[in-house]
């Protein structure tokens, strides 16, 4: 059954429209989140790049708050908003030292007449939340609010709640949400929606709906409220029931609402129902968008029709709806599931020809196939293609690779991946290093293990205690007591000193 598409209207919006409510397009330099965000992808200032690297190294190598302050004072780098934004972003994505990053945030923020951007605040909160430093997180919020009440936005609330919800209960998350009443200028439906979105992402739809019913009398639910709650249903019956509840309340569905319903049908392999919703949208003069067709493409793959899904890419383009990277990834995933990698690579080439750049998700679809088929050569070639294309691997990419290197005992390849991570700052050092140190220790590569261990510490990343104990045993057997003492001293920057000698 081929879909009959109508030309898209000018109201059709791209996939990334959902971020717009959290971006501030005003001219206020303290809240210019959009301008700050865009600068990360179009840096044309080599000096700024060097300054970011200088400050990041100071944060990574400082052993105390006093040492950090002295190093910052001695440098001649001008600590501008743009530089601070980029340094904190670097800390976040390289899993840098949260304690020193916080001290840097305080040091720069307490200067007279200086105001952090919303981006800096949100990034700092993410780093603290990831490290479960929730007390410090709220201390930061209170401190910045005293200086600038407008800096705490709904996105700030989402960043904080997401980290809390990841490790705390629903009740604790809701209690933390209520604390924001004293922090934000308007504690309204937008904030309520941020809570619901967080619960959908970090907890469950049942939790989100329960909280919705318990708090909805304090807020005025709107279309976004229902769209948030519609996204993520796994049961078509439950999604249908909530969709009816929304319309019964007089809230008119939009393209996002219908896309949520289509998505749950596609994931449930009920493609015919998904087609009927598309027809209903068109009858109501709501044009399907790229997300609509991405769901259909994914659903066709689940029922074993990858070729038909690929035809959707061509058909939607004919009617003015152009596939994006996610749409191509859905089609590529279908061919990967079917083990038809030639067609998958063909779609990657087509993406590039259409001016789209495959992302880490694209490559991970292929890395997964190669990992389970134990195909080292193809994985290594794909990694080379990825790096040549300028697409940095994410943590999942690195784990597929390092585990395959570990399985086949390929030390040189593992070290090449590690050196690329250190040089370019991608992936999780903690997760990758555990597998790397296992390989190096099993192969008796003690010198290499020591070097990687020190590189990790220099990056402000704490090696796991398991990895340290493995290296410790080998160093004791090799009578490298001085080197072991050096590693132990380096580890003290992360807290309680590591005991070099076992107690008897």
Key descriptive features of the protein:
504 residues; mainly alpha; 27 helices; globular; disordered N terminus; disordered C terminus
What topology does this entry show?
Elements: H1 33-39, H2 46-61, H3 65-74, H4 81-93, H5 98-109, H6 118-130, H7 134-147, H8 154-167, H9 170-179, H10 189-202, H11 205-215, H12 223-230, H13 236-248, H14 255-267, H15 271-283, H16 290-302, H17 306-318, H18 325-337, H19 341-353, H20 360-372, H21 376-388, H22 395-408, H23 411-424, H24 429-442, H25 446-458, H26 465-477, H27 481-491
Helix pairs in contact: 2-4, 4-6, 5-6, 6-7, 6-8, 8-9, 8-10, 10-11, 10-12, 12-14, 13-14, 14-15, 14-16, 15-16, 16-17, 16-18, 17-18, 18-19, 18-20, 20-21, 20-22, 21-22, 22-23, 22-24, 23-24, 24-25, 24-26, 25-26, 25-27
Question: What does the largest sheet look like?
Answer: none
The end-to-end distance, rounded to whole angstroms, is: 74 Å
Shape: globular
Structural class comes to mainly alpha
What fraction strand?
under 5%
Order of helices and strands: HHHHHHHHHHHHHHHHHHHHHHHHHHH
Averaged pLDDT: 86
Oligomer: single chain
> How many DSSP H or I helices?
27
